[in-house]
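Q: Convert this sequence to structure tokens.
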Amino acid sequence: MGRFFKLLIVTGCVLFAVAAFLYVIPSDEYILLPDNARPLAPQVFVEGERPDKDGGGIYYVAVEIDKASVLEKLFPRIREGSTLVPASSLRAPGESEAEHRKVELRAMADSQKIGAAVALRSLGYPVRVKTLGTIIAGVDPKGPSNGKLEAGHTIIAVDGQATRTLADIRREIRKHEPGETVEIEVRRDGRPKTVAVKTVPEEKHPEVPVIGVFLQADSRISLPRPVRIDLGQVGGPSAGLAFALDVLEELGHDIDRGHKVAASGELQLDGTVLPVGGLKQKTIGAKRAGVDVFLVPAGENAEDARRYAGSMKVVPVKSFRQALQALATLPEERTKS
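A:
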């Protein structure tokens, strides 16, 4: 009997040592984890802001992203609410972690300006926007643009037609059939050049021509009053909708009606709300924070959120105006002491 217990103890120690070793060895995948939703009010500063005394608030949600260990790859459910993803789903092909971090922080900075601009425009303030072009954020190393276009290039024309926005570029490229060649004019460091790129079929939609690049708008926004938003090192564009809602709240417009309202969605200057990633983790983070209402992009994002929301109300929206309309229908909560 004593020998049996000794064997059990030795076996347990060996298994523990192996598990500990596998837990510190990184794998080739990443793990997404929930992060509790947090109120935006302490991070948003607007000239002329007023205190909110109804106990509600606008909350933002983020996703914690770590390099998955070998143990987590083998047993992905050991961390609650986690999702394993390959590096290719987070970074553009050929993009390093440092480069990706810069792209994410730039996207966050842009989303803050866009959120403030959309909010102030909705109140009738004049907002000046100058679109400088569209930046190439990454190039697919297996795509037709590899070796011809580079991250950091600004696309200024396609087939001789000026393209100031993402929509302009897609429209001109989609005038072609997959396999045809397009002329892409780019600028970097003030020097323009034109390259010919053969289009290829989009993987999920073979009838759509693409050139294998990842694009990001480059705009200059002039606000009529100072707005400052500081989320530290949080990156990505998915808090744009939350920023716009909170700017209105800071200016004394009781859009939360006393509720804790979380929002996730990439906001465009015209008020359109685009889908974002990590809805499983974001929904869990909002629920853990005691959020009453979670605004998310309509479609697949809303379906994902409902799977993990429990009793938390999920509201799908396609635009900033629709988000305001949805919040206006909420019953008004009494002031909380």
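Residues 100 and 181 are 29 Å apart (CA to CA).
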